[in-house]
Amino acid sequence: MKKKLQKEHSFLKAALTDINKELRILQSSKRGTQRNLSSIKSGIEGVQGRESQIRDQLNRLIDKETRLSKKKTDIKNKLDSLSAKLEKVSKLKDELKKV
What is the DSSP secondary structure assignment for residue 99, as one 8-state letter? Predict the structure, then answer.
């Protein structure tokens, strides 16, 4: 009976050793996976930060484009008005030459 218990004890001790070894391997693998996950998370956060910067820059450029487009329209209107005035002056000049 004692031999049977020793044999069983030896078997259980070996099984426990194997389980502990496997547990260490899994814990090591978990730490590696966590490091990889942390690295990926940092990369994603960096990309998101850059995306936000680019989005802000794009919004500023759109605002600037809108202002410039309005200025362009205003200048074109002023130019058209000035051209019309110059045409009137030219007509008046021609009429004065006739007199």
Answer: -
